[in-house]
Amino acid sequence: MxxxxxxxxxxxxxxxxxxxxxxxxxxxxxxxxxxxxxxxGVYTGILRxxxxxxxxxxxxxxxxxxxxxLRVEDVAVVHGDTALLTRPxxxxxxxxxxxxxxILQELKLRVLEVTDETATLDGSDVLFTGREFFVxxxxxxxxxxAEFVADAFKDFTVxxxxxxxxxxLKSFCSMGGPSTIVVGSSDVAQKTIKAMExxxxxxxxxxxxxxxxxxxxxxxxxxxKADTLVHxxxxxFPESSVAFQKLPDYSLIPASCTEVAKLGAALSFCCIxxxxxx
Amino acid sequence: xxTEVGSxxxxxxxxxxxxxxxxxxxxxxxxxxGNEEAxxxxxxxxxxxxxxxxxxxxxFNSSISDASTQSTPSIDKKDPTGxxxxxxxxxxxxxxxxxxxxxxxxxxxxAEEYIQTKDRNSxxxxxxLMKSTSENEVVKGMETEESKxxxxxxxxxxNSAELQTDKEKKPEESLExxxxxxxEEVVLDKKKDENSKDGEVWKDEDASKKSPLKIPKKIKFMxxxxxMLDGSEFTYEIEKHAKGQIMLDKVCEQINLxxxxxxxxxxxxxxxxxxxxxxxxxxxxxIRSCAWHFNFNVKFYPPDPSQLTExxxxxxxxxxxxxxxxxxxxxxxxxxxxLLGSCALQAELGDYDANEHxxxxxxxxxxxxxxxxxxxxxxxxxxxTHRGLTPAQADAQFLENAKMLSMxxxxxxxxxxxxxxxxxxxxxxxxxxxYKDRLRINRFAWPKILKISYKRSNFYIKIRPGEIEQxxxxxxxxxxxxxxAKRLWKVCVEHHTFFRLLSPEQTPKSKFMTLGSKxxxxxxxxxxxxxxxxxxxxxxxxxxxxxxxxxSRSLDGVPAGGINExxxxxxxxxxGSTADGxxxxxxxxxxxxxxxxxxxxQLEMPVETxxxxxxxxxxxxxxxxxxxxxxxxxxxxxxxxxxxKVKLESPVENSSIVPPVELAAKESNVSSxxxxxxxxxxxxxxxxxxxxxxxxxxxxxCKTLTTVAMDSEISxxxxxEVHFPVTVVHKMQDVLEEDLQEMQNGKLQEAxxxxxxxxxxxxxDVSFIDSDAMPEVVCYAEPPVVKTEMVTISDTVSxxxxxxxxxxxxxxxTETKTITxxxxxxxxxxxxxxxxxxxAQTITSESFCQTMTTQITKTVKGGVSETRIEKRxxxxxxxxxxxxxxxxxxxxxxxxxxxxxxxTRVVVHKETELTEDGDE
Lengths: 278, 920
Hints:
Distance between the termini of chain B: 49 Å
Helix content of chain A: 10-25%
Distance between the termini of chain A: 11 Å
Order of helices and strands of chain A: EHHEEEHEEEHEEEHEEEHEHE
Oligomer: heterodimer
Strand content of chain A: 25-35%
């Protein structure tokens, strides 16, 4: 618990040069690839320099790779010394798991896999609060998949909440601190957070932000208890970025990801954070 | 299981009643003691003396029954006509289905008789001679009844003393599973040998027993085995009709455990299900025909083990958790597993020593159901990092990690939801958890639950309307069978009471129109046990932590723990009674829908009331429909913030307003038998009923606890000179510790915990304030105040005598007699001299709105003997009571009673309940 927000490594994936339509194929055409590359570069820079993480950059998928592959969070759930490789709903994405697997093994994590053919699990449906897991049962994640989370992280309660179709659980919420959940203001987001409040044994503070997408941030503790929050920039979500000012004594780092967002991703989706000093 | 056994016990119980009464008469203060006091007596009584054992046993029992009488004084004394009183007008066959074995019938009668005797005794307060006459009458009546019984069942019809003695010699005795330990003569002889102060009484009884009308006394003992958490096995001789508490007390005494409220005994019923032994009920009636084999287990897992007072308690909690882990009940990750294992290793083996701890030393200890080499290596690696931790510290660290585990303290029960999907219901300190597979799908914190009930194999919770749901909703679950539903319900009632309430709820009276089980948790709540244990004053007991090897063995042998222990889906049962068998069939037919369940109850009623007339049957059906109304009535009554006294009376008013309900109430009393019966079909429990009164948050109650310590200096303090500075504001569990040390005059002192071996300080003995145990406490409504403050006052001794104008007659009557006033003691100079404790005595008395406990201790310090009287006065009331005035009054009275002593210290502990948050 005390080490919540502390990380040593981050795994990211580059954007494929040759884009093949995947799940979000139709939107790829709308992508400003150059801008996306630039934003991804800034993002990696923040992880490396501002957050002091050792960044492991996975090679962009070779030909035939899907651009959504940069959503590495989907393919692994990592806490402590344990990494659970997921089984993405999108069959095309399952091969992404292999590359991540080798990296995680290199990092000497206990790597577990979802072995059940009927299970589907996207990492972006898994919210770890430091004390427990919430798994969004969504289009991409089913109960069977959630059970693997429970099996992999036996110390923790794994509660399930239903997330309606266009969303992943973390599309509208994320941790903004050791006991703070940042949540969007949409009906779906508010309904889900209510369900979570009902399920939990703990008391979390709730930071509601006007925009769902802005509720996905990255909370990291840098150095000696310096709360740091990477959040969507004021250009993208002016109102929401004001809301983050309420967090006391935080270093706020704005990051734009307009282009990544077109792939259905948000800030946290693009990296796997690992703490080797667990 | 013969009639003769029953009748022997009847006498036994009578004598219990008499003895209890006698002690009441001789020492009126004794009657007002709470459970605490009785327990102390028990411990004293229990010194193993082989020759006097049976008699000791009896005393033991009587003090227990005494204690239970005390703890629910309103039932037996205040309310002689209600409750069980009604019971005696019913013939035995009405109370139980005919098909029940004859023993059951006899038992009923016993109970009946016992109550009668008690009623008489308590009502009349007769002198002893009179009493024995009344006893004779009782016995006569009893015999008549018994002969009726004989007509029903011919083969066990031996009532008279002669016949019974004959029968003792017959081999039929071996029908009993237990070895028959004693016979009448032996017991009597032993009694004569007894030189205790009760000797007279006993002889008296012996004489009366020898009269032809009396049935000779005979105590039967059962050999019971208790499997401990460390794998050891204890064997006890338990009086056959002893209550569960006796056995638990024996076990706790043997292992030297004081904080025993967290623990309990489990047994396996005929279907192999794990059941908790109810301390308030007879063991025999709970385990029925099963072997007297028990497991000692943690019943309530403290959410914060660091708040336990003693290391030995933590040790046993550790052992339980290790068992939970090994059995798979408490899942944990590899890392946590290794960490916990290493803590256990450190606690047991001490620091890692390369010479001593050769490769594979971990293997000898079992930590996991499938212990891998990798795990052992990791454990060993972590073990090295714990260097320097004492066993107690290692245990504490173990618990700090274990308590974080998600399944810590969760009692799982198999169930199906309304759609027939397999789920698990987990009962824990915070509420009810619903799991599907390993995923939590819902959670109902105790404050959200309005009512818990079960009906046959269905278990229901009624949910308080929340943000999402606008109306109260009832959620039903289907348990594998009726017993599983009842078991779950009981566990819920117990957990709710233990963790959420300040004091146990009273057992519902029969005029409360509850159907079925009247079960309530009657032990101490967590709040009470914390208060009590904070006053534990003894050097840390020595105990050895060498369990693991034995533990692994015992786990192989005993089918304890294990996930599969939770509810096997057995529908059929092999319960002793045919009635239950029929019901089980009904279970199978049982309609899963709530709406149709009423019909089911009609189907089933004939089983329940087979022996009674048709009228009753129809009324029972009616009653089933009334039940909703009842619930409302009860809630109304209970939501009125008030005290137990109020509570007792209100239902009467209500039921007189609603006559049909009252009628139903009587019927329910008839039909549902009493809590002894295991055949109840349904019961309900309102977790919220105590809100605003007894629940930890939203308290309306305000208690003031005043302690006046006096010492033998001849001076009287002027009340006006007492100052009331607030020195400490703290949480409830930090209940003040009584300090008998003399204080420098006018000096403030914070209460702090000291041990007797360091300082001759004695912790106060009123270890908890149980408002229910005080029949005459006044409590009014009060806005919820969330604070507890402790005020420590030392008054200034003024030599001039104050005029004392007391409004009331002094209430403590006997303590002055026992003071041995030896010499005047100087000031607090002797603080560091431990002194020798010569005697300690505790007297409790109650008056209108306060309970006064007087602790008299005699210590010898450097040749000077010193007598200290410590009075602990609990004033219960609301803010309308001027507590300052009450305090002043109390001090005044204390001084009045002991004009030859001086008040050296006044500690005020004012308690206006705390929130739950503050508590955790």
